[in-house]
Amino acid sequence: METPRKRLDPRRAWEECVAVQKHMNASLPVLAAEGVSVRFGGVQALDDVSLDVGDGEICGLIGPNGAGKTTFLNAITCLSRPQRGSIQLSGRTISNAAVRDIIGLGIARTFQNVGVYGSLSVLENVMLGAHHKMGGKVVRALLNPVGAWAEEKTVRRQAEAILDELGMAALSAARADSLPYPLQKRMEIARALAAEPRLLLLDEPAGGLTHGEVSEFGRLIDAIRHNRKLSILLIEHHMGLVMSLCDRIHVFHLGRNLASGRPEEIRTNEAVIAAYLGRSE
Ligand SMILES: Nc1ncnc2c1ncn2[C@@H]1O[C@H](COP(=O)(O)OP(=O)(O)OP(=O)(O)O)[C@@H](O)[C@H]1O
């Protein structure tokens, strides 16, 4: 006798589909760039570079001055348009995204030269990081604090919590331009975190820190990664920080990939040592 066929339960099938999709996304790198080239007139700033950042990883991006590191961050955030190559975020192509959509896709960054709104308070600067989530209401609330509404209060509370996490709670009411340079850089990280990114891009965040402060800063970045389950791509010239903090390191030289590997592999890589000492290979 023929056994009766099991009826397909559409709800169960959908849940299984979602579970498979989640599993596939989890195994994809958060960031995958392939064959990216960027030219400015006669300058080939990036020439066929590839780089990936895994889920929950901190990857370093290092290289001598002019290697193309900042241009690469600009390409990821669509401030520079690559002439060739593809850039994917968790499997989704973002190379053609509009600059304003990048933060909504889950990428936030800090800049090599700090960009603070000097006359606003530290807290207000951080709240601006949540601007994209609130459809412009954060700016309106800052211009007209009397008409504060519930969502603005939520954004304010989140910004206060981030400042606390970064050890800056006591500075929240200070004017942003009254902070010393290293704290302005830390405030930029707080603002980037307010966007609740999946991928955080840090461009020389340890600039201006003393040797002793750098170790404490490294522990803070590591804690942020774990607490917020973030992936981080870090450009930094402070080699002690890069070697101690990063899971993997990508090295660019003259706009090209020179090496990729774990810190101990990069530290002893002959080509990397030669590039930093200014010898041609
Ligand atoms: N907007 C631009 N117009 C023309 N050339 C540019 C532009 N931006 C970058 N470059 C050139 O592209 C190359 C790579 O510059 P980039 O700033 O990306 O290097 P970097 O590795 O970040 O350097 P640094 O460590 O000094 O910050 C350099 O030769 C630079 O002069």
Automatic annotation (TrEMBL):
Lineage: Bacteria, Pseudomonadati, Pseudomonadota, Alphaproteobacteria, Hyphomicrobiales
Keyword Nucleotide-binding assigned: yes
Record keyword Protein biosynthesis present: no
Matching Pfam families: ABC_tran, BCA_ABC_TP_C
GO MF terms, alphabetically ordered: ATP binding
InterPro entries named among the record's database cross-references: AAA+_ATPase, ABC_AA/LPS_Transport, ABC_transporter-like_ATP-bd, BCA_ABC_TP_C, P-loop_NTPase
PANTHER family, A to Z: ABC TRANSPORTER ATP-BINDING PROTEIN (PTHR45772:SF4), CONSERVED COMPONENT OF ABC TRANSPORTER FOR NATURAL AMINO ACIDS-RELATED (PTHR45772)
Gene3D superfamilies referenced in this protein's UniProt entry, alphabetically: P-loop containing nucleotide triphosphate hydrolases
Residue span(s) of domain ABC transporter: 31-279
Organism name: Mesorhizobium album
Keywords: ATP-binding, Nucleotide-binding, Transport
Highest taxon of source: Bacteria
Protein's UniProt name: ABC transporter ATP-binding protein
